[in-house]
Design brief:
83 residues, mainly beta, four-stranded antiparallel sheet, globular, 497_t:CDS:1
């Protein structure tokens, strides 16, 4: 298995959630994790997954934003930074 490390460097008091999926759209989700600002975390990507998408949700209390990244090749060295 490989780890994707999330560097959570967004505004203080903000919460982030990342979900991994096999497809560009709904379905195929296999891992998710979240944390408050400035706390990093990681997701485990199984070896049998060759590529995947990351769906980022940022909750700022009164508003929420969504961003999709991918497809990302599962090469075992991915680092993602929220800014």
């Amino acid at each position: 298995d490989h780890k994707v490390r999330i560097h959570n460097k967004i505004m203080a008091g903000t919460h982030t959630l990342v979900t991994t999926s096999l497809t560009n759209g709904e379905g195929g989700q296999f891992a998710s994790k979240g944390a408050i600002a400035h706390k990093g975390y990681s997701l485990t990507i199984p070896d049998n997954v060759s590529s995947y998408y990351l769906d980022f949700v940022v909750d700022q209390g009164i508003s929420e934003s969504f961003t999709r990244r991918g497809p990302i090749t599962n090469n075992g060295i991915n680092v993602i930074t929220f800014m």
